[in-house]
Amino acid sequence: MTKPRKELRTEAVIHASAARIWEILMDFNSYANWNPFIFSINGKQAVGSTLTVKLQLPDGMGMTMRPKVIAVKDNQEFRWKGRLLIPGLFDGEHIFELRENNELSTTFIQRELFSGILVPLFRNLIDVKTRIGFEAMNKQLKDQAEKIT
Q: pLDDT tens digits for 27-38?
């Protein structure tokens, strides 16, 4: 029996270099100043490290997760994987990807790969509220990266 799966994917073209966007994404201490979705990340940006991630859904519901970092590729990808209680119940692999289009723009892709037996129960939360959160973060990241410093 295969576990139910679902992918949520959003993207934004940002008129900035991948290095500039990466700098903003990796500055966890500044998230509270600009990020309306993930307002806090604590931990090391190293594979195997455990993060404490606090996020806020559009309805005001807050969540705290403690995922493990599973990939760090400077200026390209940051990925973590978390779960609800036990593996296989409701797991999420969160991915930030940067694809440099040219020296003037980068496509920022924010994805989450959900799996586990509870995925069907959380479909509305994923499709509506989590998507709104991703899109709000993408917009603010774009605004931050495109600011002239």
A: 999 999 999 999
